[in-house]
Design brief:
The complex is a heterodimer of chains A (267) and B (650).
Chain A (H helix, E strand, L loop, with lengths): L1 E3 L13 E9 L8 H14 L16 E4 L7 E11 L5 H11 L4 E8 L11 E9 L3 H12 L5 E6 L2 E6 H4 E6 L24 E9 L7 H12 L8 E10 L5 E2 L3 H8 L1
Parallel strand pairs in A: 4-11
Antiparallel strand pairs in A: 2-4, 2-5, 3-4, 6-10, 6-11, 7-8, 9-10, 11-12
Helix pairs in contact in A: 1-2, 3-5
Chain B lengths: L1 H4 L29 E7 L3 H4 L3 H12 L3 E7 L3 H9 L18 E5 L6 H11 L14 E5 L15 E3 L4 H16 L5 H10 L4 E2 L4 E5 L5 E6 L7 E2 L27 E4 L1 E2 L9 H5 L4 E2 L2 H15 L3 E5 L9 H11 L6 E4 L6 H10 L7 E7 L3 H6 L6 H13 L4 E8 L6 H22 L5 E8 L16 H16 L2 H4 L2 E5 L3 H11 L4 H10 L13 H12 L6 H5 L14 E2 L4 H12 L17 H5 L35
Classes of the chains: A alpha+beta (267), B alpha/beta (650).
The complex binds iron/sulfur cluster (SF4).
Iron/sulfur cluster binds next to helix 22 of chain B.
Chain lengths: 267, 650
């Protein structure tokens, strides 16, 4: 089998003239996508949607997609970001619609703006997570969170492909509370929409704001810390969703990383 | 039942393979369909998802208003253990419905090494392993694919084997099941199977009685009342009217083939005597130039893949291949859509094609398949290529800028001696010398890839003795020494071969009869899974199970594999008709032994292999008189009305 992809050594790739920042969600069953899986889906979607994406040079050119800290495999997200380099200016709303149509259901484009000013990475230093804990009572979660927040430092161990690493969960934890983060979310026990079997009808919700660190503190690490400080062990796997990413303000809220671009674009 | 599965997924590796929801996946309303198929590829998702056969049947069935089809793949042992612990049944990835809820479970066997995975799926689904124990409540288990041409080793586990091309027969099976259900299931499962047995291309093993002779062989295979004496394979004609898959599935997880595939023709009459695929898919049926062009365009648009493979058993043999490759290379020039062409023909034309599809790309590696090391053995296997042809061809390739050639060979062929294999070393040395001379560079490379030969049913070698893996391993060890005997040349030569022992088990499963089913079941009960994967395959488990199950019956692993058969022996698959005339096969086997070659009926007169008359088909080759309609990528994001054309460089 002769297998050669046409390269562009003879005719160098056209330059990037515009960059668009896209916010997208990873939902439902597709929360099990790894970052590599997400990236492959996007590479195919830009081709399918005929987005004029810029390519790297060389014999195996790849589309210019820059990723910002991906949610781990198994976590859903309402706030993932990618920046796309383009060879021709486009209307970001058109791009969002075309890309969304070309992606599998569950990878959903939420917003797109023309990139201006500071890089995306400089606009994100924390994430807000919503974690469903089937089979856990809110009161028990609240007690465990109190215990965790009362410490100065709480180190958990994570096994990574490159070995064991110690992670200070408490140091990265900005806020954590029972219940959803929205004003209407009361800290009561709710039934999960898809009812985990054997977990009982109870399902506590935790909202946590976690500062970006290296290595990143993930929802699993926070749960690990709750086990260490208070012996809290959910009887069924927890389900985490990243609700937002952005810059932390003094109240512990997150500023929309696309906000300033949108103002620039429309102003 | 996704809710039952979901809590298990965070605990297994690569959970994304179990969630479905791929681009172009389909999920039909359960109640809307009178007949429901689960289609299984009995290997891991990464291997099974790209399978063309499953993709084609999935679309063909889902296009019917009265049917639906959902897919499933083998689950890895980590998930299997959790499913058993939590009583989660085998499921489809589309609707996450239990396999047991479907009317039919279609399983596509590209290789015999998937048999143990069938048993895992049946067991996890709560479907009795043995067909005789199933009731009206259980799905009808249908085996298809190349391995179904001898389904005897899995005869106890399947209800039906569908022989040959599946496009039409799946619809007909659907009709039979629909009518039987609509009539209130008269006569129960037994009548349904009897109706299917009367249907062309459907073999129902339970309707045949096998009687064994005192010498261990088969005395007779007797059809029960109503079943035909022999079952003939199905053949799809006019590929242009079957442009499937129209919208290829785009995997979410990484798979072995990250590309769209378009089948440019089916069948092959080159007559390589070792090649079961070539023998059982006759005659040659080409898709037209225009049909191919349309399918490639549709596949790229529907999938977003950046590569399209032009598939067939020997793609350079399409009568319009030069126009196809040039036309497609023109169409996609300057885009990032690449083409690939599986062809291993040893001639200059093959290099022209490779040059065409790699126009702007890097000329990395070309593959040729002489298959046999010596001229003599190549006459035995009917692979007509001389060493001088090969050297001329590779010189040409190196002169045109290709840096590496890969050569495919087989070891353990009938009549093979050490010398036949050792000649591969001399050939590889000459390749390096010729490459250096032609390219003026020292760093040309040659990789020799060697597979162990497994005799397969419905080929002239179905009577041959399989070489024992110890013999093969010893020959390859000598070959390695011979390659390295000249260090200056040897260091530019790579050698790849796998452990020969799985080949012996593949041989048992390929040419076994119903008694081999006990071996499969025992291996499975003792933990055998994923036998196509070296890290899961256990040779010792197979040999121990073969000893325990076969020897009390007076036969053995060796009896099924390393023993040559004579003309009169009843072969387990003799009542299954691939169209090939048994006498022609025997004569071809005798020709092999005397080193007599056989031409290709596409460019020489018909040599009466029997396929065309017995299956009522004809060779369908071009020129088709059609043209490749030029297509350009239009539309797309941010493109003005005057801004047409596909060129990314413009
Ligand atoms: S019957 Fe004749 S024409 Fe048909 S495949 Fe066989 S040899 Fe070729």
């Amino acid at each position: 089998m002769a297998r050669v992809r046409p390269g562009e050594a003879a005719n160098p790739a056209p330059p990037t003239v515009q960059r668009v920042r896209v916010r997208f969600a990873k939902r439902g069953r597709l929360r099990f996508l790894s970052h590599r899986d997400v990236a492959r889906s996007f590479e195919r979607a830009v081709r399918r949607a005929a987005v004029p994406v810029a390519h790297s040079h060389g014999f195996s050119p790849h589309p210019r997609l820059s990723w910002i800290g991906a949610a781990p495999t198994g976590s859903a997200s309402e706030a993932e970001y990618v920046e796309i380099g383009l060879t021709r200016p486009v209307d970001p709303a058109d791009l969002a619609a075309a890309l969304d149509a070309a992606l599998p259901a569950g990878l959903d484009v939420l917003d797109a703006v023309v990139a201006e000013g500071k890089g995306l990475a400089d606009r994100i230093d924390a994430s807000r997570w919503r974690v469903e804990l089937p089979g856990v009572r809110s009161a028990d979660l609240a007690a465990a969170l109190d215990a965790l927040l009362a410490t100065d430092s709480l180190v958990v161990e994570r096994v990574t492909p490159s070995g064991r690493r110690n992670i200070d969960v408490r140091a990265a934890l900005v806020r954590a509370e029972v219940g959803g983060a929205g004003p209407g979310d009361a800290p009561v026990d709710t039934v999960p929409p898809d009812g985990h079997p054997g977990a009982g009808p109870t399902c506590a919700i935790m909202t946590a704001v976690v500062r970006q660190t290296t290595p990143a503190v993930r929802p699993d690490d926070v749960l690990g810390a709750l086990d260490v400080v208070a012996g809290l062990r959910p009887p069924a796997p927890a389900k985490a969703t990243r609700m937002a990413q952005g810059l932390l303000d003094h109240r512990g809220a997150l500023a929309d990383p696309l906000g300033s671009d949108r103002v620039t674009t429309r102003g | 039942m996704f809710a039952d599965l979901e809590p298990l997924l965070p605990r297994v590796s690569k959970p994304v393979q179990y969630v479905g929801g791929e681009l172009n996946a389909q999920l039909k309303d359960w109640e809307s369909a009178a007949v429901r198929w689960a289609l299984m590829y009995p290997d891991a998702y990464e291997v099974g998802l790209p399978n063309q056969g499953v993709m084609i049947l999935y679309e063909v069935l889902n296009e019917r208003a009265d049917a639906l089809a959902e897919r499933c793949y083998a689950v890895w042992p980590d998930l299997e253990a959790l499913m058993r612990e939590h009583a989660v049944p085998a499921f489809t990835v589309d609707g996450h419905r239990p396999l047991g809820a479907f009317d039919l479970l279609g399983v596509s066997f590209a290789t015999e090494l998937g048999y143990t995975n069938l048993l895992t799926a049946l067991d996890l689904a709560g479907i009795p392993l043995h067909a005789v124990d199933r009731t009206d409540e259980h799905p009808v288990v249908v085996a298809g694919g190349h391995a179904a041409f001898n389904p005897e080793p899995i005869a106890d586990f399947v209800d039906v084997a569908a022989l040959g091309d599946g496009e039409e027969v799946v619809g007909e099976i659907t009709d039979v099941v629909r009518d039987w259900k609509a009539q209130g299931r008269p006569g129960g499962r037994a009548e349904l199977l009897a109706r299917l047995a009367a249907h062309d291309g459907c073999y129902v093993p339970s309707m045949y009685e096998v009687e064994y002779a005192p010498d261990g062989g088969i005395a007779a295979v007797r059809p029960r009342e109503g079943a035909p004496v022999s079952v003939t394979k199905r053949t799809t004609s006019d590929l242009d009217s079957w442009p499937y898959p129209k919208a290829p599935l785009v995997p979410l997880a990484e798979t072995v083939h990250e590309r769209a595939s378009v089948e440019i023709f089916r069948g092959c009459t080159r007559g390589c005597r070792f090649c079961q695929a070539g023998m059982i898919t006759r005659p040659v049926r080409e898709r037209s130039l225009r049909g191919i062009g349309e399918m490639v365009d549709a596949a790229v648009r529907a999938s977003g893949f950046d590569e399209v493979g032009l598939l067939s058993l020997s793609s350079a043999d399409h009568s319009e291949i030069a126009e196809i490759t040039k036309g497609l290379a023109d169409r996609y020039e300057g885009t990032n859509t690449g083409l690939s062409l599986p062809s291993t023909r040893v001639d200059a034309f093959n290099i022209d094609l490779a040059n065409e599809i790699s126009r702007n790309g890097r000329r990395s590696g070309l593959t040729f398949a002489p298959e046999g090391g010596s001229e003599r053995i190549r006459r035995v296997i009917n692979k007509m290529v001389s060493e001088d042809d090969l050297i001329r061809t590779v010189s040409e390739a190196f002169a045109q800028g290709w840096k590496q050639v890969k050569l495919y060979f087989m070891c353990g062929l009938p009549t093979e001696e050490d010398e036949d294999v050792l000649e591969i070393a001399g050939m590889a040395h000459r390749v390096i010398q010729a490459g250096r001379a032609a390219s003026g560079r020292n760093d040309v490379r040659c990789t020799i890839s060697i597979g162990g030969f497994v005799p397969k049913p419905h080929t002239p070698f179905q009577w041959a003795a399989q070489a024992h893996p110890d013999v093969v391993d010893e020959r390859l060890r000598k070959l390695r020494d011979a390659v390295n005997s000249n260090r200056k040349l040897g260091r530019n030569i790579g050698m790849r071969y796998h452990d020969g022992r799985p080949s012996l088990i593949e041989g048992l499963l390929a040419r076994g009869d119903r008694r081999v089913g006990r071996v499969i079941e025992r291996v499975w009960r003792e933990g055998g899974r994923f036998d196509g994967w070296s890290e899961h395959f256990s040779y010792d488990r197979w040999t121990a199970a073969a000893r325990a199950e076969l020897e009390p019956l007076g036969v053995s692993l060796e009896w099924f594999t390393t023993r040559e058969r004579d003309r009169d022996e009843v072969l387990p698959w003799d009542h299954l008709d691939s169209g090939l005339d048994r006498d022609w096969l025997w004569d071809d086997w005798q020709d092999a032994l005397s080193g007599t070659e056989q031409d290709d009926c596409r460019w020489t007169p018909c040599f009466d292999c029997g396929v065309c008359p017995s299956t009522g088909t004809d060779i369908e080759v071009g020129p088709s008189g059609t043209t490749l309609i030029p297509l350009t990528v239009v539309g797309g994001v941010g493109r003005g009305p005057t801004d047409g054309g596909a060129s990314a460089g413009g």
